[in-house]
Amino acid sequence: MTPVTVCAGKTLALFGLGGSGLATAQALVAGGARVLAWDDAPAARQGASDLGIEVADLRTVDWSSVSSLVLSPGVPLTHPEPHWSAARARAAGIEVIGDIELFCRERAGISPASPLVAITGTNGKSTTTALASHILRTAGWDVQMGGNIGTAILALASPAPDRAHVIEVSSYQIDLAPSLHVSIGALLNVTPDHLDRHGSIENYAAVKERIVVGAEWSLAGVDDLYGSAISERAGRREAEATPARPPPGRHYPVSVERRLDHGISLDGTRIVLRIEGSPHRILGDVGGLTALRGRHNAQNGCFAAGIAALLAVSSTDIQLGLASFPGLPHRMEEIGRPHGTLFINDSKATNAESTEKALLSFSRVFWILGGKPKDGGIAGLKPHFPRIERAYLIGQATEDFAATLEGRASYERCGTLETAVAQAAADARASDLSEKVVLFSPACASFDQFKNFEERGDRFRALVRALES
To answer: pTM for this one?
Structure first.
């Protein structure tokens, strides 16, 4: 735990008593603060009370005694409209912040030089966070990994000079961290997502950009329109620095589509760092690494290797970390090869952009997809439909996706994941393809049939395991 000592003696309101909310409340209390916590769900309130957290209805509290409202990142801050607790706090002139902001304030107070790496992006941030952490651990670092992946940030050990925190941050979390300042900020990519929570792609991109602006060292992917513009602005800020106005931080663009004369890019499968006026440095090689299969994972590897290099990790240790990385569950996870067919669990692919990366990783696939559809569906994937041997549709998206596939790719309506796996396995086994691949990459949220993508992926894994018996 990181006790939030900078809030000692203060009273804070807190809304949202999920995992990160409970961790935040406990960290604040451990640091000497009083916390008035609330959640709309009675069960969540009872769970907090059982842990000794003071539960108080924020509709009736005296806001004049409250210094801050700590809002769960899953609760709307601005769009489609502010949550009632945020509206009440703002009406009282009280700041609305999140757990990332509290951690940054505590770090600034007790160990401002301790390494803090923050990673964001529309796609790939979890893999990059895990990979960067793995490389650092391989090199002998004390690493605390969490944030939007795994452990809530305030449940991690406190900042210390010899300890690195590597955290994944979502746009929601950045939006609640007004003083965000990190050692290394990495922005992988920006494509349309969460527009219901940010109002527009421009607003969404502006929130993401703050990870670069508030960093001593920064990396930004330049293979998409918004990321390229963000990187250009970072470069201009650096170029326009003067002795009276020092640069906000050194910036490096990252590309897997073209060679960069300054920045990190691919030379075949090798990750190369080039700095103008200096010899280039080979950071590592992703060739033949199945856990980093595909162009998107090459991008993840470039960012993780770049982060490690900025922290003075040797190329030898970077390569050891790349080669030994096991991958993450539900993200291009190789489940097995029952009856000679490779089964890939990509349940984390909850939008078309993520699924595009998976499709590009194979020449032909038996593709299982569907769930609760997002805006745009799979229309943007039409250029990749020639890769589809057959598609198997499940969930609410079935009819919409069938209409998009009609006349362009073979498909069948399966309804459930169980039916889809059985049919895809049978078709793959009967085919004469030299490489038989069943790809579960839904391009949808899971909430129509499963509580989250993890449960969905676990079910797929169990179904595949049953094929091996």
So the answer is: 0.88
